[in-house]
Amino acid sequence: MTTTPVPHGSAGLPDRALRDALATRPRPPRTGPLSASLTLAWRALLKIKHVPEQLADAIMIPILFTVMFTYLFGGAMAGSTHEYLQFLLPGTMVFAVLLITVYAGVNLKNDVTRGIADRFRSMPIWRPALLVGGLISDAGRNLLAAGLVVALGLVMGFRPAGGVIGVLLAVGLVLVFAFGLSWVWATLGLVLRTPSAISAVSFLVQFPLTFASNVFVDPQTMPGWLRTFVRFNPVSQLVEAVRGLMNGTAQASRIAAVLLASGLLVAVFAPLTMRLYRNQT
Amino acid sequence: MSMNSAPAIEASGLVKTFGGNRALDGVDLVVPAEGVFGFLGPNGAGKTTSIRVLATLSPPDAGTARVLGHDVVREADRVRERISLTGQFASMDEELTGFENLTILARLLGFTRAGARNRADELLDGFGLAEAGGRTVKTYSGGMRRRLDVAASIIISPDLLFLDEPTTGLDPRSRNQVWAIVRALAREGTTVLLTTQYLDEADQLADRLAVIDRGRIIAEGTPSQLKTSVGAGTVQVHVRDPARRSEAGRLLAEALGTPVQTGSDETALSARADDPGRASVALAGLARAGIDLTAFALAHPSLDEVFLALTGHRAETDTDTDAHTDAHADTHQEKTA
Ligand SMILES: Nc1ncnc2c1ncn2[C@@H]1O[C@H](COP(=O)(O)OP(=O)(O)OP(=O)(O)O)[C@@H](O)[C@H]1O
Ligand SMILES: [Mg+2]
């Protein structure tokens, strides 16, 4: 069949510009894994620029929990708010950061349901770039939450014996564990049907893990069975290590345990996520 | 690309099952590396599933496909370097501007920062989106989104572009814009595989087409080959008095020896005529019986009729069937005039 040629411009499109836009030109060199991931991390930042509300959790959770728990329970649990803050702050930082790691799954799920992931998957780029880019921008969000907790704590009278180095290492350790945990949410992001299902699962898992831990109270006051749970709870391990770093009493074995746990999470859930991502139908 | 180069797509025996549902049930397809190829079928026929397999997004359960000479499973990466896909549903970041969307994709494809911005501007200009480029995609109309989606697929001119229902839901003006883009792309040497449920769209754009139904290719050829395979044409008449439509139908059926179709317009009738000579006999018969006609035409068969003849069921079951058949009749008359 011979299609009747439509003269340029007849459809209301600028004819010269259309022709220019379609002209073939040399193809730029392929991007590497790092630059593709960074581009997609930049994409996530641009989205935050347009919809700053996305950061509401990362800002509100640290403020709310640091202030609320300190003044609410401080007097009752440690005799003074000042002393309680010394105990609580490392735990609040862990708690706040772990809660917002769920974004790793929610954002991925949104990209998949909106077909955006399909576009990236059909392009000649390093396949994990979307996941890795997301995790890079998540690290920024986590850093913001951790930084807020520390800043607020300092204002309220928190005095870390571990000094600047100790605090920075503590923040770093939380970010490493958060990175490992993010892969769990990414996996769930590809398995569960809706973003809200991921949030729901995350709350169901994270609330018992954080409250039945040493974040808020010393486990000495708990019944025996609960104390056992708390001791083996990975969140407790992380909080112990973070407290150690901030108080200048860090034990290498605790830090190693956290790094090992983070590594295990990545080793199990990163390949699982990649597999699910690759084999979507 | 020349006529005798290797085909853009060679698929054989593609099967894809979802649960117990065979979405693709042995698809064999050869698409030449030139022009626009139409992929036509009703809802749920397997168009999107086929495209996803061919664009390396979804591995087939059985069968093989080579796209631009590379196997879609084993050499997926090689395929991805030379194809582009505009999916059935918008795949842009709603929260970002059109410009940002294109810039990000251009960066991913290896453009420098400045190069990516230039390319984004150039595409926005060419696709009539220059003014909207700075607005978030959320604020775009359906037609603007579609154009942005297509623009995103040709940041680097692909050798083969998949367009999944690029005009569904667009008004005639937006549809014409997308058509102009498709024709321009084909002229610049990109092979376009376009799926559609609209028979007039395939007729207007495609150099060749395949018809898919229930996961199988049921016909393949040029639009005119498919039409002539069905018969010489169709007699279409409109009676002045709706009350006499059934009588007119009986007379037509007798004279033509083919079943009569009635549309929702209560004055309309049509029937296939295998031989144009009998069409004039049929019309004379109506005149003898004193049935006044307000309009009559002898049309080549529409692809809708082709579809009916091939599958035994109509291509579209929704309410706009008639609107489309009419639109087709109009374009056809323009062409023959
Ligand atoms: N991911 C999926 N899971 C389950 N079933 C699916 C999936 N994708 C497609 N199907 C089924 O496969 C069949 C073919 O679907 P497909 O989307 O390819 O049709 P289509 O020709 O593109 O239709 P439409 O014109 O409505 O877009 C349908 O029965 C559909 O329900
Ligand atoms: Mg479809």
From TrEMBL, chain A:
Keywords recorded for this protein, A-Z: Antibiotic resistance, Cell membrane, Membrane, Transmembrane, Transmembrane helix, Transport
Topology in the lipid bilayer: Multi-pass membrane protein
Source species, domain of life: Bacteria
Record-annotated membrane-spanning stretches: 55-78, 84-108, 129-158, 164-185, 197-217, 255-277
Location relative to the cell: Cell membrane; Membrane
Chain ranges of the ABC transmembrane type-2 domain: 53-280
First-listed, main subcellular location of the protein, grouped into a coarse class: membrane
InterPro entries in alphabetical order: ABC2_TM, ABC2_TM_bact-type, ABC_2_transport, Nod_factor_ABC_transporter
Matching PANTHER family: NODULATION PROTEIN J
Similarity comment: family membership: Belongs to the ABC-2 integral membrane protein family.
Name of this chain's protein: Transport permease protein
